[in-house]
């Protein structure tokens, strides 16, 4: 059994696992993915009770049309193994992925892969169906990101965690997602590109993390547009007000989508028998070749996934 690496993830909603009201409300929002959080959105005192709330929400809730993910605690804590065991034993058949935060090297992902396999075998779930999302949140994780991205066939995405990342490298800013004052260029460019290269090398999705000024929708749009332009597949959303913007920004513009479909049609026709098996075609005054077809496929694929 293998995981699905191409599910839509334009909007990935963070839901505190300790809050039954939010667990309920999340089911009604038009997001591509929810992740029910046992890590930083849960205070230490409620982390254990949140496991049961998450199992209940997954098994009794209606998550139709959404990718379901649970974020467990990172491997420097003592919570991780019980998070995984409780949630997967309790609701494994309703769960698409486990998100592992603050991943530092490939062994941490392999640990999770093995544990998932053991649980799946023990309780009779198909082995290998539950995917893994790896969050890169510190310099060690980024330095090892190539190895991490290739560490398990369960991996579906590499996720940038800007809040922890900024703290871990001592970046001089207190507003997550904003540029640090004093630096004249984009302080996130290198990190975003580094993650994107590793993800694409292993045919994984790349997901941008949160923007914490939740009432500043224009600020969210601006930050999202940057990673979307690079090729990122989606971004975390923390508030219903960010959802629609994420779904829009990480979908192709209608004009681009229509143009991509025209390119594919023109290329298919030119290379077919009717078109004389040519290697290129003209679309208006634009020459279309195999590389144009590949670029068009990316846009068309995202548009089709978004139901355009
Ligand atoms: C997310 O986990 C972040 O640290 O930004
Ligand atoms: Mg974090």
TrEMBL record:
EC numbers: 4.1.3.34
GO molecular function, one term: citryl-CoA lyase activity
Keyword terms: Lyase, Magnesium, Metal-binding
SUPFAM superfamilies hit by this protein: Phosphoenolpyruvate/pyruvate domain
Residues holding substrate: 71, 137
Positions annotated to bind Mg(2+): 137, 164
Essential cofactor(s): Mg(2+)
InterPro entries (alphabetical): Aldolase/citrate-lyase_domain (IPR005000), Citrate_lyase_beta/mcl1/mcl2 (IPR011206), Pyrv/PenolPyrv_kinase-like_dom (IPR015813), Pyrv_kinase-like_dom_sf (IPR040442)
BP GO terms, sorted: oxaloacetate metabolic process
Domain HpcH/HpaI aldolase/citrate lyase stretches: 10-240
Domain of life: Bacteria
Name of the molecule in the record: Citrate lyase subunit beta/citryl-CoA lyase
Phylogenetic classification of the source organism: Bacteria, Bacillati, Actinomycetota, Actinomycetes, Micromonosporales
């Amino acid at each position: 059994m293998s995981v699905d690496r191409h599910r839509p993830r334009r909007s990935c909603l963070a839901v505190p696992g300790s809050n039954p009201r939010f667990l309920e409300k999340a089911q009604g929002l038009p997001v591509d993915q929810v992740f029910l959080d046992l890590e930083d959105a849960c205070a230490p005192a409620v982390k254990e009770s949140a496991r049961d709330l998450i199992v209940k929400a997954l098994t009794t809730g209606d998550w139709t049309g959404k990718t379901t993910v649970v974020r467990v605690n990172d491997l420097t804590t003592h919570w991780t193994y019980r998070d995984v065991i409780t949630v997967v034993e309790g609701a494994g058949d309703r769960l698409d992925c486990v998100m592992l935060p603050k991943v530092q090297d490939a062994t941490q992902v392999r640990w999770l892969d093995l544990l998932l396999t053991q649980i799946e075998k023990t309780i009779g779930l198909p082995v290998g169906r539950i995917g893994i999302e790896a969050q890169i949140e510190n310099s060690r994780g980024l330095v090892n990101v190539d190895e991490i991205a290739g560490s398990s066939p369960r991996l579906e995405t590499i996720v940038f965690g800007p809040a922890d990342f900024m703290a871990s490298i001592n970046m001089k800013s207190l507003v997550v997602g904003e540029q640090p004052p004093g630096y004249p260029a984009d302080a996130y460019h290198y990190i975003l590109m580094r993650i994107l290269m590793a993800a694409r090398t292993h045919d994984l999705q790349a997901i941008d993390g949160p923007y914490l000024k939740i009432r500043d929708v224009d600020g969210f749009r601006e930050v999202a547009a940057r990673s979307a332009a690079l090729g990122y597949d989606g971004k975390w959303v923390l508030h219903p007000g960010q959802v629609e913007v994420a779904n829009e920004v990480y979908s192709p513009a209608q004009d681009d989508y229509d143009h991509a479909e025209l390119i594919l049609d023109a290329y298919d026709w030119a290379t077919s028998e009717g078109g004389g098996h040519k290697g290129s075609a003209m679309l208006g005054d634009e020459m279309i070749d195999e590389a144009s077809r590949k670029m068009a496929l990316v846009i068309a694929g995202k548009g089709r996934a978004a139901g355009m």
